[in-house]
Each structure stands twice: as C-alpha cells, then as structure tokens.
Design goal:
Radius of gyration: 24 Å
Number of helices: 11
Strand content: 25-35%
Shape: globular
Number of strands: 22
Strand order of the largest sheet: 9-8-7-10-11-12-13
Bound molecules: S-adenosylmethionine
C-alpha cells in the first residue's frame, strides 16, 4: 500500500459479507476492504490501517447505518475482549456464515467436486459452553479511553483475558458468558481475596509478582479443576491462596497449583502440586469415562464434541472388522469412542503425555483393541510403521489448525485406505489438503459443526472415499 493510503478514511462503505477469519468485506474503487467488528449490512466510515495492491484492511470509525441482522451483544466486555466477536450477529446468521465459510474455502482452495454441504450442526448452548478458561493476573489493567481521559486514579490490578494483540494488557473480567458452573465466582472471589490481602499481581514485563494465571476446567459431570500459577515461590502466600479456595469452594474436586518463574505461561514442563482433591477430573460420553489431567487436552465444548465425534463415527461407517488409524489422536478420545465398532484402532499423536492419557483412557474403560504411539506424524507414519501394523481400512484424521504436513498427505495417498474421515478446525487448510487428496479421493459428505458460538470458528467433517 502506498503510504498515502494509510490512515485514509473511506466514507459510507457498505459491508457486504463475511469473509474468512471473521472479518467482513466491502468494496472501494474495485478493491476489497476487510473490516473487523462490523456486520454485513452496516454502512461505515473506515480508516485504512493496512493494504496491498489488491486489498485493504481498516477499522470502522463511524457507523451511518446498522445492519438489520444486528442484535444487542449480551456481554458488557463485548468489543474490548477478543473472546466472542460475533455476539452482535444473531445465531442463525452466525451458522449461515460459518457454513458459507466452508463452501467458500472449498471452492476457492480445494477446487474438487463437492456434494451439497449439509446444514451446520448448531450448538444447543450458545453461552456457557466452554469447559476450560484461562485467566491472567496482571498489574497492567486495560483502561478504556474514557477512563484514561477522566484522569481518575484506577487500581491497575486485573484478572481476566489478554486484549487482542496486546500481550501485556489484561481486561478485568466481571462476568464471562463462556463458562458455567462456579467459574465466575471462583475468578471474582480470588481477585477480591488477593486485593484484600495485598498479594501482588504479575508484571509480565518485569516478570515479577505472586499471582500469575488461573485455569478453571469444568465437566458435564459437575467436577471442577482449578489450577493457580504462581510467579514466585512464596510458600506462605501460596498456602493462603490455596486454603482460601479450598475453604470457599468445597465443590472444587481437583485443586492444584504450579510455580512458574519461566518467561511464558505454559506449564507442560513443570511439576504441578495437587493441593486438595484428585489430580484429574473425568468427563463422560456414552458411558465412557475420559480422565483429564491438568496437562491434558480435551475438546473445549464437551456437548458439541460428542456431536462431532458422532458425525466422525457415522462417516467412518464401521462394521466391526476394520483397522482404524486415528491420526492426531490427542488423548485418544476419538480412538476410544469408535473402538467398540472396530477390530483395532491405532492412535498417533506427538505429545507423549497425551498418549499416556489415551492409554489410560482405554484401560479405565476396559478397551483392549487400541494401540497408541507418540511421535511427529510426518516421521512416525512411515513405511516401517505401515509394515509393522495392519493397513488401515479407515483413517480418521483431526490435525491442528495448520492442517496436515504434505509428507503426511502423500503417505495417505500411498496407503489408499478405502475411507478417510477428515475432521478439521480450519476449513482453509482442510481445503488445501483435499486438493492434494483429490488425486485419489472423492469427497462424499461434508458436515460443518459449530463448536464455538459467538465466534467465527467452524469445525468441519469430510468423508472421502477412494476413487474406483
Ligand atoms: C485438533 S487436536 C485433535 C485432538 C483429538 N482428536 C480430540 O478430539 O481430542 C490436534 C492434535 O494434533 C496434535 N499434533 C499437532 N501437530 C502434530 C504433529 N506434527 N504430529 C503429531 N501430532 C500432532 C496436537 O498435539 C493435538 O493433540
């Protein structure tokens, strides 16, 4: 973009539709303009922040007309918090846009014939659907422009979420509509207790401060795990905080803490201390139990995860005599979920701790026909692996947002499993992989699933069959 364009204001831009990643688009002098935090049908003035020869990006600075599809956002933090960016769009339309996203990406990137994309499976819960939230303590509370201009003194301690694109600024959350149970109470009482007791909130630039992070995990079986991360090893204060939580919230079934003096908040390499209760919580699905440790991954919308897994199992069309590969198996949830309908299931995943959980989950459910291996998919899924194990009849693959490594896709083409079920949280990379798989596979079914209402994210399941 020429420097001249930066900060230029385009007036009366009609927002036409939603594009990928939740941004909306309009057109100005033949160029596409991407705008965030607007809705199709809005007419806005846009200040240009970035652009290339073929497109521009900008922010809405004045609204002339509001879309008729807008609704009143329910959360007081909407607009500042990055969590639920689509609250201003009604849920039916959110679902339409999500399905459209899948169609757009498939037409633009995959360029393979596709059948009718099924209507998206909506989430029954559009609020309080997450089972895990991660809050950060900070002594750099985000202040609104009005607060700054008021020249009043504000307490700068906060417990909440990072402001998008500002790593050191935290929005103090009063109520979050994403997680139910005791989540809001735990966060707010802990903040109050910390303020009353003058405990220090973490300073991310200086890397000092006692209270650093709070993770709350809930289950549909009413269990709650709370993990507090401390930035300093001050045993007296740690005990004070943990005793407070234990006393105040007897329904916490797993109360843990970790001392983290590293440069980042990840704790997969640190030792967690179980202060009270059990070191895990358990989720249930069709009578199967899934044990979730503090370091384990579990799909964040449990109810929709069940719907997603049912679609995956349905697309796999198992009769009982198949060998199934469950690639990117995480803690083996899909593998264990389909095990009863298969002869054998082999799960592969690179996080070793997740593979340990996967094995444990088979064990506690009395499942004996699963095998799990840890390793990077592109290295582990090689000729030797294939010759040691039976060839798969069905491959279920659920890669991260980046999709599958090309080497893995090439391996799938060599394996020629009659059926591939491709579960994806990013239709763009899924479409890219389908373009390659199109050499030997045809797309038979496409089922988008909404795991994250109020956001632009969409999960998509595709059934591929080997061309005859
Ligand atoms: C979207 S999650 C799927 C989780 C699982 N299927 C479930 O439903 O719980 C993707 C998984 O892929 C794993 N992963 C990412 N990159 C990988 C790689 N290169 N090799 C093996 N596993 C990988 C991640 O650790 C994560 O568990």
């Amino acid at each position: 973009m020429s420097r001249k364009m930066k900060n230029k204001v385009i007036t009366n831009l009609l927002i036409e539709r939603i594009a990928s990643e939740g941004k909306c688009v309009g057109h100005h002098e033949g160029k596409v303009v991407f705008v965030s935090n607007v809705a199709p049908g809005d007419v806005v003035d846009v200040r240009i922040t970035k652009g290339k020869s073929s497109f521009m990006e900008g922010e809405a600075i004045r609204f002339h007309e509001f879309s008729k599809d807008r609704i009143e956002p329910f959360c007081s933090h909407f607009g500042t918090c990055g969590g639920c960016k689509w609250q201003h769009i009604n849920y039916d339309l959110q679902k339409t846009y999500k399905r459209q996203q899948v169609l757009d990406q498939f037409q633009r990137i995959a360029k393979v014939p596709i059948p009718e994309v099924a209507p998206i499976l909506g989430s029954e819960k559009t609020q309080y659907y997450r089972n895990k939230l991660d809050f950060t303590f900070s002594n750099k509370k985000w202040l609104t422009l009005d607060q700054i201009r008021s020249e009043e003194e504000f307490d700068r301690n906060a417990l909440g979420f990072h402001i998008p694109k500002m790593f050191d600024k935290i929005i103090d959350i009063e109520h979050c509509y994403l997680q139910g149970g005791i989540s809001n109470e735990v966060r707010n009482s802990l903040r109050e207790f910390a303020l009353e007791n003058k405990l220090s909130f973490y300073d991310i630039r200086e890397q000092v401060g006692l209270l650093r992070n709070l993770i709350i995990r809930t289950t549909s079986t009413n269990q709650t795990m709370v993990i507090v991360q401390f930035g300093e090893n001050d045993q007296e204060s740690i005990k004070l905080v943990m005793e407070f939580l234990r006393r105040q919230f007897p329904s916490i079934t797993s109360l843990l803490y970790v001392i983290n003096t590293k440069g980042n908040e990840t704790f997969h390499d640190l030792e967690l201390v179980t202060f009270s209760g059990l070191p895990y919580i358990e989720e249930e699905m069709e009578g199967l139990k899934f044990r979730i440790g503090p370091k384990s991954f579990y799909q964040t919308n449990s109810e929709q995860a069940y719907e997603l897994y049912k679609v995956a199992r349905d697309f796999a069309q198992l009769k009982g005599d198949e060998v199934v590969y469950d690639l990117y198996t995480g803690t083996g949830t899909i593998a264990n979920f389909v095990a009863k309908q298969a002869k054998q299931v082999i799960g592969v995943e690179y996080v070793e701790a997740a593979i340990e959980d996967a094995k444990l989950n088979s064990q506690i459910n009395g499942i004996e026909n699963t095998l799990f291996y840890a390793g990077d998919m592109k290295d582990i899924l090689n000729e030797e692996f294939i010759s040691t194990h039976a060839k798969p009849d069905v491959i279920i693959t659920d890669p991260p947002r980046a999709g599958m490594d090309e080497k893995v896709v090439q391996m799938l083409l060599r394996l020629e499993a009659p059926t591939i079920v491709y579960v994806s949280c990013n239709p763009a990379t899924q479409a890219r992989d389908l373009a390659l798989l199109g050499e030997k596979y045809q797309v038979e079914k496409v089922q988008p699933v909404d795991m994250f209402p109020q956001t632009y994210h969409v999960e998509n399941v595709v059934r591929l069959t080997l061309k005859s």
